[in-house]
User: What shape does this take?
Amino acid sequence: MRILAVFDSEHSTLTPAEIARRTKLPVASTYRIVNEMVNLGILDKTVTGVQTGVRLWELASRGSKTLNLRNTALPFMEDIQRAIQQHTQLGVLEGKDVLFLERLSASEGAVVNILQVAGRLPAIICAPGLVIAAFSPRAVQQGLLTDMPKPYTRFTPTDTTGYPAILADIRRNGFVQVDGWIHEEVSAVSAPITDAGGSVVAALSVLLPNDGKTSRVARPAVQIAAAGISRALGYSPVKAGE
Assistant: This one.
C-alpha cells in the first residue's frame, strides 16, 4: 500500500529507486516487492520504470460501491453540465478529505478547477465536504473540526468558530455555497446525495464564477440533480420521514 500510494498524476511512472526514496522503504525490499507486484499485474513495466497496472483497476472495480455510485450519478451529472456548462463533480468523504470520484470538465468559459478524478480536498473547506459533514453524525463532525488545513485563499476560514452555524444552515437549506475558499474567482455550490438507508453518502457540486449572480441560477439545478441521484439510489423522502 505504501508503494501504491506514491503514484499520483504528477508521478504516474516511477523507478524502483524513486519508489524506495519516496516510501522510505529499504531499497532491496522495494525492488523485491515491486517485482512481485509486476508479476501479479498490480504494476506494469514501462520504458522508464513502473506504473499502476490494469489488473489493479480491474480488482478495484469489482463490486465497488463507489463505482455503483458513480454510474448512478453520471447521467444526472451530464444533464446538469449541459445546462450549466461548468465543471460538475461527485465527491465522497474519505477520512478528513473529500475524494472526488468523477469530474465532468467544461472548456470555453469554464472557471478554474484544480482537481482531477481521484483528487482530494480538505473536507472542512470545500463545498461537498461541508454538505456531507452537515448531515454526518456528531462524532464525524467533531473529528473534521479538530484542526484546520492551511488556507488556500484569503477567504478560506482559519478557525472553526463559525462552523456550527454553517452546518446548521446547510441542514436547513439543503445545500451550501462557498465563495472563493479554494480559488478566489470560483464559487462552489453543493447538495447532498442520500442512499436507500437515508444516509448522506456523497455530494454533487458545480464550480461557478464568483460573480454574485451565477450561483443563484445554478443552485436549484444542483439540488434537483442531487435529489434525482438519491432517488436512483433508492432513497425515498416519504420513508425517511416515517
Remarks:
- Residues 41 and 55 are 5 Å apart (CA to CA).
